[in-house]
Amino acid sequence: MIGGFKFEDAGRTYTCTVEAPRDRPLEVRWWFSVSGDQQRYAPIEAKSGDTQASVKQRILAFYHNRLHALAQPPVRRQFGGPARAATPKPVAAVVVEPTEAS
Fold it and tell me: DSSP per residue over the chain, as a string?
């Protein structure tokens, strides 16, 4: 398995490392941080056949998708608003029998 590395894309520096959580040592993941972003990410499981090119491609796909999602307008949710219109219930048919006139 390859070790950690750095690369640049679109003016950002990506720092990638392979780490396993202490409580789950068999769950090895690619962690990365991006210059200008305070958060670290671990979206990718590390595999024995990983190359810098394959890891870079997966990281860029993840991060560009994240940036796209963050750029979308917020979804407005209405809480405590008016109740939804109830679906009208069918009315039972009433059959009226003709009566005999005397």
Answer: ----EEEEETTEEEEEEEE--TT-TT--EEEEEETT---EEEEEE--TT--HHHHHHHHHHHHHHHHHHHHSPPPP---S-PPPPPPPPPPPP---PPPPP-
- Residues 27/36, Cβ–Cβ less than 8 Å: no
Q: For the segment 55-65, what is each residue's pLDDT rounded down to a tens digit?
A: 999 999 999 99
Kindly list the strands in the beta sheet with 5-9, ordered across the sheet, starting from the edge strand earlier in the chain: 5-9, 12-19, 29-34, 40-45
- Its pTM stands at 0.68
Picking from 15, 98, 100, the residue whose alpha carbon sits closest to that of residue 56 is: 15
Task: Parse the chain into domains and list their residue ranges.
Answer: 5-71
